[in-house]
Amino acid sequence: MTANELEKLNDEYGIREQLVFTDGPGGLITAEISNPHGEATIALHGGHILSFRPSGQEPVLWLSRNSHFTPGKAIRGGIPVCWPWFGDHPTDTDKPAHGFVRTAVWSVSESEKLADERTRLKLSIADSDETLKLWPHRFRLELDCTVSDVLTTKLIATNTGSKPFTCGGALHSYFNISAVPNILIKGLEGCAYKDKVDQYRRKVQDGPVSIKRETDRIYLDTEADCIIEDRGMQRKIGISKNGSRTTVVWNPWIDKAQKMADFGDDEYNGMVCVETANADTDVITLAPGGTHILESVIRVEPWAGNV
Ligand code: BG6
Is the pTM of this model over 0.85? Predict the structure, then answer.
C-alpha cells in the first residue's frame, strides 16, 4: 500500500485518539485500536486480530516471535480466521488448510466510536476469480470487532450466490498463558470429541482439560462457554460464543513445535488455542441470501480461584 493509500484509509476510517492505520509487522497494514478500556491490533492481511489487551492486563492473545508476516502466508498466533473450511479441505488436501481467507487481504468497511469510548471496526472480503478457483461459491464475509475491556468478534458469512453452500470455520484464538502446567480449561466436561492425535477416535472429556502432551481435539456439539484458569498469571480468560457448535483445543507440544518454521521451539509452553468453531459434523449450510454469525467474546475475569 502506498503512503497515499494509507493516508486515504486514515482519512476515511481513522478515529482520532482511538484508531489509526499503520505499516505493521512485515509492512502489513494494521489497525491500531486504543481506548480507555483496552487495545487491539488488527491486520488487513487475513482479517487477523494480532493482539488484544484490556487496560492494566497482560496480553490476552499469544503471537509467535517466529511468525511470518508475509503476503500469502498465515500469521502464527492472535486470531486467524479459518473459512470456508476448518483444517484440511474435506476432499482435496492440496487446497490450503483452514481455508483461504486467512492469507488474503481484507478491506475496511466501517469504523465507529461507540458509546462509552468503545471502538468498532468492520473488515470484509468477498469472492473473487481466485477464491472461485478454490471454492465455487459467491460469498461475503465480514469481521466485526468491538474493542473495550472485552473483545467481541463476529464473523458474518453471507451466501451471495444462487445455490446453497456448506461452510465450516473458526476464530482460531491463540491465548497467552504463563505455562501449560499452570492451566486448566473448564467448560468442556462431559463433551464428546474427536482426538486428532489418536486417529480421530471419539472420546468423552473427563473433567477439565489439562495440557500434558500434544493436544488436538475437536469438541463437537458444544455451545458452552470456556474458561482458561491460569494460576501462574492469577487470571481467568473467559471465552463465550454464539453460532458455534464446535470448540477446538490445540497445543502442538515439543516435537511439532520444533518442526514448524513459524513457531519457536519452546513457545508451546506459553500458549493454548481454544477455538470458536464449526467443524466436522457441525458445519453450516447457507441458502442463497442466508447469513450466519459466528461470535466469540473474550474477557479477563477476576482470579478468585483454585486450580
Ligand atoms: C488447529 C488444528 O486448529 O490448527 C491443528 O486442529 C493444526 O490440527 C493447527 O495443526 C494449526 O494449523 P496451521 O494450519 O495453522 O498450522
Answer: yes
